[in-house]
Automatic annotation (TrEMBL):
Keywords for this protein: Hydrolase
Record EC number: 3.5.1.28
Protein name per the record: N-acetylmuramoyl-L-alanine amidase
Organism, scientific name: Paenibacillus mesotrionivorans
Record's keyword annotation contains Hydrolase: yes
Length: 426
C-alpha cells in the first residue's frame, strides 16, 4: 500500500510543535457586543458597579462558552473603549455573522423593579422617528425567535425575574443586517439585582443562559468529533476522520485529545492502521522474529523476552486487559518489548522517542538499532531509541521539537497521534 511513501511527511505534523489550526470554515459566527465602554459607563449600580464593566465580563464569559463549543465569536469591543452605536453596527455588518447579541444591564427610576428582559426590533411596533434598516424589518420573526430563546434560557439559568420580550427601536437592534437582540441581564438600580451582578457566579449563570439561547437558535451545523473536541480544535478534522473509519474511539462521547497517549492505545491504532505482522506459529519453542529481539523498549537493557509467542507474559498485562490481544501480538513480533521487571506498562504514556521507535519498527522492520551519529543534542548515541529517531530524521519524516532537540521523553497526546494517522488515510 505504499506505506513508506504515505507516511513520509506525516510525522512532521506530529513531532513539530502543534499549532492551532484556523477555525472551521463552516462554524457559526456570532458577534457579541458589550454595551457602553470607555467614557460611557452606562448605568451605575446602587452598589457603584458600572454597567460597562458588567457587560464586558458577561460578554467574555459567553464568548468563552461558545468558543469552547466550536463557535466563532467576535466582539465589537475587546477592551474598555468607547464605541458609537453606529460603529457597533458597522463592525457587525462588516463581519457578516449569523447573529448579533448586545449585552446590557438595566436601570429604572423605581428601585423595586428587577429581572431580565430582551429587546428586539419588531415591524409590528414601528416608531416613525426611528425607521429600521430594510433587513431588520424583514428579520423581525428571526430576531424575535432569538430573543425568546435567549430570554428563556437566561431566566432559567440565572433565576432572574422574567420580564419578557420588549419590541424596541433601539439602534443596534434596528439598524443591522442579521438577527439582532439587546439583552438586559438585570437591574443595577435594584439592590438585589445589583448585588447579584457583582457576583461572578451569577454573571457566569447569565452567560451560560445566553449561550444556551444562542445555541438553540443557531445550532452548529457540524458537531465536533467528540463532545470535548470542538470544531475549532486543531486536530478535529483528523480525529473525526479516524473516528468515522473506526480507527479510534472515545469514551462515553469524549476523546480526551490532550491526554497523553498510552502504549496500549498507540499499539491499537497501529494495528488498526497497518495490521501488525502475525507472530510466528505458537509452537512454544519456535523462535519469533529474531531480527528485532533485543531492542528493548522504554530504556531497559534486557530484551530477553519476545523470542517466542508462547513465552510472552507480562505481569501487568492480564488477559482481561482491553488491549491484551494486540499488546501480546506486538510483543510476540518484537514490535514492542517489555521491561526488565517483567512489565509492558500498557497504560503508561508513550513518549515521542518510543513513538518514533515503534513506527520505525513497523515501517522498516529489521533495520539497525545502532545509532552512528548524534543528530539531536538530546538524543545521544547511547539512547535506546536514537537509531530510530535518527533514521526517521534522515528520511525527512520527523522534525525536532526545536532545531537542535527532539524531546524524546516528552509524552505524545492523543490529538497528535490522530493527526499522524489521519494522514495515512486518503
Ligand atoms: Zn446599557
Amino acid at each position: 500500500m505504499g506505506t513508506k511513501k504515505m507516511i513520509t511527511g506525516l510525522l512532521i505534523l506530529v513531532f513539530a510543535v502543534a499549532q492551532p489550526a484556523p477555525a472551521w470554515a463552516g462554524a457559526a459566527k456570532i458577534v457579541l457586543d458589550a454595551g457602553h465602554g470607555g467614557s460611557d459607563p452606562g448605568a451605575v449600580g446602587v452598589n457603584g458597579l458600572y454597567e460597562k464593566t458588567v457587560n464586558f465580563d458577561v460578554v467574555n464569559r459567553v464568548k468563552a462558552i461558545l468558543e469552547g463549543r466550536g463557535y466563532e465569536v467576535a466582539l465589537t469591543r475587546d477592551s474598555d473603549i468607547y464605541l458609537s452605536l453606529a460603529q457597533r453596527v458597522a463592525i457587525t455588518n462588516s463581519l457578516a455573522p449569523d447573529l448579533f447579541v448586545s449585552v446590557h444591564a438595566n436601570a429604572h427610576t423605581n428601585p423595586s423593579i428587577n429581572g431580565s428582559l430582551v429587546l428586539y426590533y419588531d415591524k409590528d411596533y414601528p416608531q416613525a422617528d426611528y425607521p429600521p434598516s430594510d433587513a431588520m424589518a424583514a428579520l423581525t420573526p428571526e430576531s424575535k425567535r432569538l430573543a425568546q430563546l435567549v430570554q428563556d434560557a437566561m431566566v432559567k439559568s440565572a433565576g432572574t425575574v422574567d420580564r419578557g420580550l420588549v419590541p424596541s427601536a433601539v439602534y443596534v437592534a434596528r439598524m443591522g443586517s442579521v438577527p439582532s437582540i439587546l439583552v438586559e441581564t438585570a437591574f443595577l438600580s435594584n439592590a438585589g439585582d445589583a448585588a447579584n451582578l457583582a457576583d461572578a457566579d451569577f454573571r457566569q449563570k447569565l452567560a451560560a443562559g445566553i449561550a444556551v439561547g444562542i445555541e438553540a437558535y443557531k445550532p452548529l451545523e457540524k458537531p465536533g468529533a467528540f463532545a470535548d473536541v470542538s470544531l475549532s480544535h486543531w486536530a478535529n478534522e483528523a480525529i473525526l476522520k479516524l473516528k468515522n473509519k473506526g480507527i479510534l474511539e472515545g469514551e462515553a462521547g469524549k476523546y480526551y485529545p490532550e491526554r497523553a497517549l498510552t502504549r496500549a492505545e498507540f499499539v491499537t491504532m497501529l494495528e488498526r492502521q497497518f495490521s501488525l505482522p502475525e507472530p510466528a506459529a505458537a509452537g512454544g519453542t519456535t523462535p519469533g522474529n529474531a531480527t528485532v529481539t533485543g531492542s528493548t523498549y522504554g530504556g531497559g537493557s534486557g530484551g530477553s523476552q519476545g523470542t517466542s509467542a508462547a513465552a510472552v507474559k507480562f505481569k501487568d498485562l492480564p488477559a482481561s486487559h482491553w488491549a491484551y490481544a494486540v499488546m501480546q501480538k506486538a510483543a510476540s513480533t518484537g514490535i514492542l518489548s517489555g521491561y526488565e521487571d517483567g512489565t509492558i506498562r500498557p497504560d503508561k504514556p508513550l513518549t515521542r522517542g518510543e513513538a518514533a521507535a515503534l513506527i520505525d519498527r513497523v515501517i522498516w522492520p529489521g533495520s539497525s538499532q545502532k545509532a552512528t551519529a548524534t543528530v539531536f543534542k538530546d538524543v545521544p548515541l547511547s539512547l535506546w531509541s536514537a537509531a530510530s529517531i535518527n533514521r526517521l530524521k534522515d528520511k525527512g519524516i520527523v522534525e525536532g521539537a526545536t532545531a537542535t532537540t527532539f524531546a524524546p521523553e516528552r509524552s505524545m497526546t492523543r490529538a497528535e497521534m490522530a493527526a499522524l494517522l489521519s494522514r495515512l488515510i486518503r
